Amino acid sequence: MDYIVHYMSSIIYPCTNNMEGKLKIVIILASIREKRAGEGVAKWMYKIATQQQEIDPVLADLKDFPLPLYRYPAMPKEIEDSYSEVTEKNWHDTINTADGYILVTPEYNWGYPGNLKNALDYLYKPWNKKPVAFVSYGGLAAGTKSVQQLRQVAIALQMAPIRGEVNIPNIAKAFDESGQPTNPGISKQTDVLFSQLVWWAKALKSAREQTK
After folding, report:
1. Regarding beta strands 3-5 and 12-14, do their DSSP bridges make them parallel or antiparallel, or are they unpaired?
2. CATH superfamily, region 3-210
3. pLDDT (tens digit, 0 to 9) for every residue of the chain, 212 residues total?
4. SS3 for the chain, per residue?
5. Cα 157 to Cα 27, 64, 132, 150, distances in angstroms
6. How far apart are CA 146 and CA 91, in angstroms?
7. In this structure, what is the dihedral angle of CA atoms 98, 104, 109, 110, given to the nearest 10 degrees?
């Protein structure tokens, strides 16, 4: 078994790249705050992803990709294949080889984290014609406003945002000591998300291969 090792982290996440035919789904953890609730959410999603027969998941923590604010005069699609900075190149390579994505995000003032927007904007072609799913968390609104905004950004990047999403309210009490959700409705949302994500990932991967 191969491993994905985030270069600035001691955390190792298995990635069975030799499993031909599996869909590589990158789970992106957006929050970089100290004591962030999103880490538990992302690890829970990663664990469920490993149980899906057709998915080969990778967990990409944006703490491990400290991208500076985008500063180049050229648009990303013109230069992203030749990034020379280590962090930028690693981000490109992680996203470029994926068949789909799950964004795990909090809601800050009715929006999503600025570092996530910067990470999304660093690339263009690697996102194109691939599905994306959303997992949000927060207070009573469960982070739903952040997802509303992210759907617009995903469309601009030529991603296919799937309808099924997971929205976790009252995040401080959403999981028990074993890391499982206390609300059974969350698990049902997760089942729908993975079902739709796999369908779209397979369909779009086939379409991309036919148009190469």
Report:
1. antiparallel
2. Flavodoxin domain (3.40.50.360)
3. 233 434 344 343 445 444 568 999 999 999 999 999 999 999 999 999 999 999 999 999 999 999 999 999 999 999 999 999 999 999 999 999 999 999 999 999 999 999 999 999 999 999 999 999 999 999 989 999 999 999 999 999 999 999 999 999 999 999 988 888 998 899 999 999 999 999 999 999 999 999 87
4. CCEEECCCCCCEEECCCCCCCCEEEEEEECCCCCCCCHHHHHHHHHHHHHCCCCEEEEEEEHHHCCCCCCCCCCCHHHHHHHCCCHHHHHHHHHHHCCCEEEEEEECECCECCHHHHHHHHCCCHHHCCCEEEEEEECCCCCCHHHHHHHHHHHHHCCCEECCCCEEECCHHHCECCCCCECCHHHHHHHHHHHHHHHHHHHHHHHHHHHCC
5. 17, 23, 11, 11
6. 22
7. 80
Q: In the beta sheet, which residues pair with residue 39?
A: none
16's tokens = 């069975």
| pTM, full prediction | 0.90
CB 163 within 8 A of CB 197: no
Residue 160 makes CB contacts below 8 A (sequence gap 6+) with 129, 130, 131, 132, 154, 200, 204
